[in-house]
Amino acid sequence: MAASASQKTAPEGGQGGLVLTLIISCATAVALGLAMVLISIDRTELGYSVQRLKNEVQTRTNHNTQLEVERERLLSPYVLGKKAAELGMRAARPGQTRRMDNGTLETVPR
Questions:
Q1: DSSP label at 97?
Q2: To the nearest 10°, the Cα dihedral for 8, 14, 15, 18?
Q3: pTM score, two decimals?
């Protein structure tokens, strides 16, 4: 009878180790699966951030181009002449232009 009792406990001990190994394997698989999901979520969020930043760069580049075109238009001789006429400005007459060189003031003949 003692021999049969030891035979019954031996398989149960082996099955206990198998169950423990199975539980640890399942827990590891779940943990790895969760890690993969979290990495996938981070990668997706990073992709959206990169796309948003690319769009912002494109928007700023377009705005910069528009500002350069507007600046060139405003500095054109035609627009400057028109604005000067609106403000009552005209070309300097002879003797009205002065230049300072080395601290001396001299009238520029025209």
A1: -
A2: 180
A3: 0.53
